[in-house]
Backbone:
């Protein structure tokens, strides 16, 4: 059974701080890893994806992947109140397997002004 | 960019009635679409994969006779919740992978805006 575990939260950080969101996955066949942000009552929106070991930076966001440890994280620098949302980790399966996008339970982040 | 439109955004219906939710790919053709369900404070759970021109593939535990999926064209998939009951009240979201020829493993899904179903 494929499992995706995220730090349960809720996570609160002050404005301007770094928020660290963690995710572990059980399926070693996972190729890509997506981070989605979901505001309450809305659909998820893509923040970043990563498929190579190491770090990937995009603006205030950095995704980190360690396939050996089956671990992926998302760092949000200079956190803003508008970053307050639930963050979903979603590993993807093999080639042509977008259906194997299994979502973690999400981490609720609150950035305090 | 690829846009997925979902309609309606909200629906309230009486127990026992059926509700149809539409998911359209607006600027691309989608041979595959996915239907997710999300209960409050829970994650998205894949219900089924909609395949254009063939039967949908349902995840374990999802009743195919209750959640009818029709992918009649390359731009439209519909989910019909038949004989809805209060426990079917949930947030239903459709999605589709983009059509640009990339391998799906590194292509994000594009989500519709979701449908909030309330069954009274």
Residues:
């Amino acid at each position: 059974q494929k499992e995706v575990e995220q730090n349960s939260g809720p996570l609160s950080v002050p404005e301007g701080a770094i928020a660290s969101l963690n995710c572990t996955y059980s399926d070693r066949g996972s190729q890509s890893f997506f981070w989605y942000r979901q505001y309450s009552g809305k659909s998820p929106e893509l923040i970043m994806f990563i498929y190579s070991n190491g770090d990937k930076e995009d603006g205030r966001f950095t995704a980190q992947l360690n396939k050996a440890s089956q671990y992926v994280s998302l760092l949000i620098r200079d956190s803003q109140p508008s970053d307050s949302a639930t963050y979903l980790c979603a590993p993807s399966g093999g080639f042509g397997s977008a259906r194997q996008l299994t979502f973690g339970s999400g981490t609720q982040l609150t950035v305090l002004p | 960019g690829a846009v997925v439109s979902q309609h309606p955004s909200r629906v309230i219906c009486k127990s026992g009635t059926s509700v149809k939710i539409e998911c359209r790919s607006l600027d691309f053709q989608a041979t595959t679409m996915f239907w997710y369900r999300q209960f409050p404070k829970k994650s998205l759970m894949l219900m089924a994969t909609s395949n254009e021109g063939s039967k949908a593939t349902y995840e374990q535990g999802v009743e195919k006779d209750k959640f009818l999926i029709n992918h009649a064209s390359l731009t439209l998939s519909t989910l019909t919740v038949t004989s809805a009951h209060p426990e079917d009240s949930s947030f239903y979201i459709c999605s589709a992978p983009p059509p640009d020829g990339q391998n799906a493993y590194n292509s994000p899904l594009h989500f519709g805006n979701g449908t909030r179903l309330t069954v009274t």
